[in-house]
């Protein structure tokens, strides 16, 4: 273990994004990491699914996009995240999972953080192999009955990801925020790597 002391111990990063293609394991890792950091894991996919189950107006709208593997319109998603980030539990930090996914959402998030007088500390990128990911998602579809986890929809989601979301990595790369972690390792090992990446090791 590295026990060397540094004059100024780094302030724990608490405003975080976790990004990566569908099936990279963002949700699993986000929940673990957020618990360790005592911040909320905010998953736009989960919020949409809760609305779909609750048959809210937002849910009905979101479902029509989700089932096709398309993104829910930016304006809808941005409003939802703005309201979630305004809640009390998010004032000391948050781990956003599945947002932002488009350049428009990056700008919207920048605006929200400016309004809140804060900035992002890090963007955690889970690096995975596409074919492996398709297999994981097909399996999840069978187990959890997620209506967007059929092979055809999964392939489409991966295309949408590489067209619309992968370019975001460059944007955050230019801001020097991206920390890459191998998402193909065992779940516990990925959590350890994420923890280390956050500690700057
Ligand atoms: P995955 O990353 O495995 O595809 P998510 O649970 O994060 O799954 O998202 C499921 C679906 O919810 C997406 O395919 C999309 O339709 C919708 N969604 C989630 N987050 C966003 C977002 N930031 N912008 C637009 N749509 C979103």
What's the short version?
The chain is α/β, with parallel strands linked by helices. It has 8 helices and 5 strands.
Describe the structure.
The structure is a single chain. With 201 residues, this protein is an alpha/beta fold. It has a domain at 15-128 and 178-194: Rossmann fold (3-Layer(aba) Sandwich). It has eight helices and five strands. Helix 2 crosses helix 3 (57-66), helix 4 (74-85) runs parallel beside helix 5 and helix 6 crosses helix 7 (151-174). It is globular. The termini are close together. Mean pLDDT is 92; it is low at 1-10. The protein binds adenosine-5'-diphosphate. Adenosine-5'-diphosphate (ADP) binds at residues 22-23, 44-45, 48, 65-66, 69-72, 77, 98-99, 101, 105, 148, 157.
Comma- or semicolon-separated keywords:
five-stranded parallel beta sheet; 201 residues; disordered N terminus; alpha/beta; binds adenosine-5'-diphosphate; Rossmann fold
Note the topology.
Elements: E1 15-19, H1 26-37, E2 41-43, H2 44-53, H3 57-66, H4 74-85, E3 94-97, H5 103-116, E4 122-127, H6 130-144, H7 151-174, E5 178-182, H8 187-198
The site of adenosine-5'-diphosphate has 18 residues, from helix 2 and helix 3.
Second rung of CATH, namely the architecture of the domain at 15-128 and 178-194: 3-Layer(aba) Sandwich
Task: Characterize the overall form.
Answer: globular
Strand order of the largest sheet: 2-3-1-4-5
Helix % is 40-55%
Secondary structural class? alpha/beta
Strand element count: 5
Number of helices: 8
CATH superfamily membership of the domain at 15-128 and 178-194: P-loop containing nucleotide triphosphate hydrolases
Residue-averaged pLDDT, rounded? 92
What fold name stands as the CATH topology of the domain at 15-128 and 178-194?
Rossmann fold
């Amino acid at each position: 273990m590295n026990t060397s002391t540094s004059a100024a111990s780094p302030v724990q990063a608490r405003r975080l994004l976790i990004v990566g293609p569908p099936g990279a394991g963002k949700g699993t890792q986000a929940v673990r990491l957020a618990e360790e950091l005592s911040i909320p894991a905010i998953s736009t996919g989960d919020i949409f699914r809760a609305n779909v189950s609750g048959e809210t107006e937002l849910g009905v709208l979101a479902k029509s996009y989700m089932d096709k593997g398309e993104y829910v319109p930016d304006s809808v998603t941005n409003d939802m995240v703005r309201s979630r980030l305004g809640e009390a539990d998010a004032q000391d930090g948050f781990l956003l999972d599945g947002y932002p996914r488009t350049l428009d959402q990056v700008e919207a998030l920048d605006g929200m953080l400016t309004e809140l007088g804060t900035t992002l500390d890090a963007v955690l990128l889970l690096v995975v192999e596409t074919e492996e990911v398709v297999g994981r998602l097909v399996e999840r579809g069978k187990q959890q009955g997620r209506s967007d986890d059929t092979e055809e929809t999964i392939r489409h989601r991966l295309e949408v990801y590489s067209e619309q979301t992968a370019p975001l990595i460059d944007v955050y790369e230019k801001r020097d925020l991206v920390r890459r972690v191998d998402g193909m390792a065992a779940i516990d090992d990925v959590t350890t790597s994420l923890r280390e990446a956050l500690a700057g090791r």
